[in-house]
Design goal:
single chain; 620 residues; Heat Shock Protein 90; formyl-coa transferase, domain 3; 8-stranded mixed sheet; 5-stranded mixed sheet; 24 strands; elongated
């Protein structure tokens, strides 16, 4: 039997031990020291901040700034616990405009290192230097200093070996400091930043204030992808920032930076807001790069959640989520609209040359010459056929031959060498090459190829028609088709457990539906453009996804996801052969779609390949 340990009496810790323990809440590793000193520099109005490290910060951390400095008489107070110029009571924390506020940083750093701070205020003729050791003993001396503040932290954790042994390698600790400084460089592009480690410069900005350039340089060297502006206000809150075009994405969030009132933060709610907003632009598991600045009334943000002040909590989290989601969607939709406009200009002549070319061939059916043939009309006359149903044809090529668009006769004449070419229109004619792999439509135009994913394109078309009735900004009416025999849908238990939002979502998506016996759903009307493309199993599967959204998600977002799910299931599929009329109809509708560059789940509908890209593929 183990011997019972004698009870330890309750005793007061020595002042020095208390300082060491409390310092551990603020200073865990070198990056914490740098963060506190950098925030002090920014609060002091610095426009130049230089950070120097030796041995990853173990031996030396030096932060020099050109801020307004500390008056000589106040310098001894600056290193005392709970001494600050930024707040006077707890109430001030909820109206905070500064980065620091607790008055603990310098005292905590001094408790686990050898600290020296030199500063000069504009009102002082000389600067003052103060040295402090872990025992709390200090000494001051006058120094020549241009202005601002210089803080030296030497032998970090020399008196707390247990904490010292948990530090990682020099490279790892330096890397953490560099990653942290990137956030501040993005938030304060008007500040000249420099990080030096072992005499080598690792990070340097010019302080020009050009956030776009700073962000591009920090995403990756030579970054040349578009960065789109975020600019959305819902007074008194707002979102600004930059986000990469969906053509650039990564497998993680390592190139995303979040800020609340210009304070770098980590917050799952903000991550989810951007992820959810990107669903219609990027497929799952892909993340854009960007800097997201959320401005909120200070009283709605609690930054006093964690000693590092990286974590924050919101008084109205759902409003913050909606604010950021809306900002990202609007920013990317605006950019997509601009890009869509350019692509439309390139492709707007597809239908006219196709019609002209096809109509010149007497063997083509009359229906193929109609410029606005709908896919439904085409499908009735040229039904969609799955390749599995085709007669065997071992030698059928992957690309179905389609007559190419012929130039008008007057354009194919050979001109005399000295003829006046003024006014001659040599604009490249777009031609429909055909269908590749029964999945993609290929168009060519002189220097460029365009490849259309038929499933993603049709999915986008159907989604736009459904969501046009759901989106308050458009509120378009959906023509409904009455069913001769109502469709009976047997939803899962998860769907049946909460039917009211399901019924509302279906009604808003253009369905007439009511609850039947045993939790079933009776559908009497469906959107006209979904006729012959919808069955009970398909609808039940879509409702299953809707129920998986959970009660925590906004109903508006879940309805949008339901529209996307129905569209995906009802759209023509890959590996489905399309007639020429169906291909033309699909292109017609895609070009008139509100936003046709990607399907609702983020996959591209159109890819553009230039001659330079082709040359690169062929190593030219």
């Amino acid at each position: 039997m183990e011997e019972e340990q004698p009870r330890q009496p309750i005793l007061a810790l020595s002042e020095e031990e208390a300082r060491r323990i409390s310092a551990g809440e603020v200073v865990e590793r070198p990056v914490n020291v740098v963060k506190e000193l950098v925030e002090n520099a920014l609060d002091a109005g610095a426009t130049e901040v230089r950070i120097e490290l030796e041995d990853g910060g173990r031996q030396l951390i030096r932060v020099t700034d050109n801020g307004h400095g500390i008056p000589a008489l106040e310098l001894p107070l600056a290193v005392l616990p709970h001494h600050t110029s930024k707040i006077r009571s707890l109430d001030d924390v909820f109206g905070l405009s500064s980065l620091g506020f607790r008055g603990e940083a310098l005292a905590s750093i001094a408790a686990v290192s050898r600290l020296r701070i030199a500063s000069r205020h504009a009102a002082d003729e000389l600067g003052t230097a103060l040295s402090l050791d872990p025992a709390g003993l200090s000494a001051t001396e006058p120094v020549n200093l241009q202005g601002g503040t210089e803080v030296e932290v030497r032998e970090l954790f020399h008196n707390t070996p247990a904490r010292l042994k948990f530090l990682r390698s020099r490279q790892s600790e330096t890397g953490q400091v560099a990653r942290m400084l990137v956030s501040y460089a993005i938030a304060w592009p008007e500040v000249r930043w420099e990080l030096v480690s072992g005499g080598r410069s690792l990070l340097a900005t010019d302080g020009s204030g050009d956030r776009r350039r700073v962000l591009a340089d920090l995403i990756e060297p030579g970054f040349r992808h578009p960065l789109h502006e975020l600019d959305y206000e819902f007074p008194p809150s707002a979102v600004s920032g930059l986000i990469s075009d969906p053509t650039y994405h990564r497998g993680n969030r390592s190139r995303q930076w979040y800020f609340i009132n210009r304070r770098p933060v980590t917050n799952r709610l903000l991550y989810k807001a951007v992820d959810d907003a990107m669903r219609e632009f990027l497929s799952s598991g892909k993340y854009p790069a960007g800097a997201f600045f959320v401005e909120l009334p200070p009283e709605e943000v609690d930054v006093n959640v964690h000693p590092m002040k990286l974590e924050v909590s919101f008084s109205q989290p759902q409003a913050v989520y909606q604010l950021l989601t809306t900002a990202v969607r609007r920013g990317l939709n605006r950019a997509a609209g601009e890009r869509q406009s350019g692509l439309r200009q390139s492709l707007s002549s597809v239908v006219r040359p196709l019609d002209a070319g096809l109509s010149s061939k007497p063997q083509q059916p009359e229906s193929m010459r109609r410029p606005n043939l709908s896919l439904a009309e085409a499908a009735r006359q040229y039904p969609l056929r799955d390749t599995a149903e085709q007669a065997p044809a071992a030698v059928t090529p992957a690309v179905q031959p389609v007559p190419r668009i012929e130039l008008q006769p007057e354009r194919s004449l050979q001109l005399p060498e000295n003829a006046d070419n003024a006014g001659f229109d040599d604009t490249p004619t777009l031609s429909l090459v055909g269908q590749v792999g029964n999945s993609y439509l290929v168009l060519s135009s002189g220097e460029r190829l365009y490849v259309v994913d038929q499933h993603a394109a049709h999915e986008r078309i159907l989604f736009e028609r459904i969501y046009a009735a759901v989106d308050p900004g458009r509120a378009a009416a959906i023509t409904r088709q009455s069913l001769l025999f109502p469709m009976l849908v047997s939803p899962s238990a998860a769907v049946a457990a909460d039917l009211p939002p399901v019924l509302e979502a279906l009604q808003r998506c253009g369905f007439s539906v009511e609850e039947g016996a045993g939790g079933s759903l009776i559908v009497s009307e469906i959107p006209q453009f979904l006729r012959q493309r919808l069955d009970p199993t398909l609808l039940a599967d879509a409702l299953e996804e809707f129920a998986a959204g959970g009660v925590s998600a906004l109903l508006e977002d879940r309805i949008k996801e339901l529209a996307a799910s129905i569209s995906c299931r009802a759209a023509i599929k890959a590996r489905m052969r399309l007639s020429q009329a169906e291909q033309l109809a699909l292109l017609n509708m895609l070009l008139s779609s509100w936003s046709s560059l990607s399907c609702p789940h983020g996959r591209p509908t159109i890819l553009e390949i230039g001659s330079r890209e082709l040359e690169s593929m062929f190593l030219r």
